[in-house]
Design a protein that fits this description.
single chain; alpha+beta; Uridine Diphospho-n-acetylenolpyruvylglucosamine Reductase, domain 2; Uridine Diphospho-n-acetylenolpyruvylglucosamine Reductase, domain 3; Uridine Diphospho-n-acetylenolpyruvylglucosamine Reductase, domain 1; 5-stranded antiparallel beta sheet; 4-stranded mixed beta sheet; about 30% helix
Length: about 300
């Protein structure tokens, strides 16, 4: 398989038995059999087609910000689009490749005096990941500014889709169900004033840095906001702040975060998520739905 992958992309873009903890924000996860980082859309298509032809498991990693990889790692081919990072602006339109950071798109908007992407200035994910889950913060979300996207489907075919075709809702889209790989997104923003846009971004950045436990590895906000409640408040009122299983801890700074405080295993991190869900359910009768995605295998085989 290594030889076939390196015929599609260069050897430096194919890693064997690569520890995925090196590629996730939580610093968790076992090894990938093959981690591939393609440099072009055509390479993405060819890798998907190769996986289909060889009947080998294929997983898209994204940039690993809203993700937990289990300790057993992932079999088959794992793809990371971190090399697809081009961002271009034309008038009020920004076109960004999926591996670009959504934060960098918000900065590009600022530099071009474009308003509408301020909410994304503190979201750690990639453009592709932002579309995958309709990422949002502080009252804004991707569906507010997205116009269209270019994707590769499960068969390796390339499509251009409108934002409406993605069924974007609160922290969800049809991208995972359809098996799409986002390659590129087009956003349309509004003209604004540099100082006003920067002031909003500075304020949101301050709120994020002062309230979120950025000093430890984490997956970001673990749970979706339950209707009528705030997940962090429910967890805090359940006296769970500081609760620790192994090296994983419910953050003392923000109860909605679970941090990798001391070389946690993925199992410890996931066990703590389940413990929080069970405790909040018992105390308040509220089901906390995970926002973070969990993939991979329990143990190496």
């Amino acid at each position: 398989m290594y030889d076939k992958l390196t015929k599609i992309t260069s050897q430096k873009n194919v890693m064997v038995n690569e520890p995925l903890r090196n590629h996730t924000y939580t610093k968790l996860g076992g090894k990938a059999d093959f981690l591939v980082t393609p440099e072009a859309y055509e390479e993405v298509q060819q890798i998907v087609k190769l996986a289909n032809a060889e009947d080998i498991k294929f997983t898209l990693l994204g940039n690993g910000s809203n993700l937990i990889v289990k300790d057993g790692g992932i079999r088959g081919i794992v793809m990371n689009l971190k090399q697809l990072t081009t961002i271009n602006t034309d008038g009020k339109t920004i076109v960004a490749q999926s591996g670009a950071k959504i934060i960098d798109v918000s900065r590009e908007a600022l530099s071009n005096k474009l308003s509408g992407m301020e909410f994304a200035c503190g979201i750690p994910g990639s453009v592709g990941g932002a579309l995958f889950m309709n990422a949002g913060a502080y009252g804004g979300e991707i569906k507010d500014v997205l116009v269209s996207t270019i994707v590769v489907d499960k068969e390796g075919d390339l499509y251009s889709l409108s934002a409406a075709e993605l069924d974007l809702e609160y922290r969800t889209s049809n991208i995972p169900d359809k098996g799409y790989i986002v390659l590129e997104a087009t956003f349309i923003l509004k003209d604004g004033h540099y100082d006003e846009i920067k002031a909003i971004m500075d304020d949101l950045t301050f709120k994020r840095e002062s309230k979120q436990p950025l000093e430890y590895p984490s997956c970001g906000s673990v749970f979706k906001r339950p209707p009528g409640y705030f997940a962090g408040k429910l967890i805090q009122d359940s006296n769970l702040q500081g609760k620790q299983i192994g090296g994983a801890q419910v953050s003392l700074k923000h109860a909605g975060f679970i941090v990798n405080k001391d070389n946690a295993s993925a199992k410890e991190y996931i066990d703590l998520i389940h413990f929080v869900q069970e405790t909040v359910k018992d105390k308040f009768g509220v089901n906390l739905e995970r926002e973070v995605k969990i993939i991979g295998e329990e143990t190496n085989k």
